Amino acid sequence: MLRSMTSNVPLNELGEFLKRRRAELSPRTVGLPETNAPRRVAGLRREEVAQLASISTDYYTRLEQGRMQASTPVLDVLARVLHLDDDQRAYLFQLAGKTAVRTRRRSRQRVQPQLQRVLDDLTATPAIVQGRRGDILAWNALAAALVTDFSRIPEKHRNYPRIQFTDPAMRTLYADWEASAQISVAQLRMEAAKYPDDPRLIELVGELSMRDKQFAEWWGEHRVAARTVGTKTLNHPVVGELVLDWDTLTANTDPDQHLTVWTAAPGSPTHDRLRILASWAADQKLSASEPIG
Question: Which ranges carry the HTH cro/C1-type domain (predicted)?
Answer without folding.
Answer: 39-89
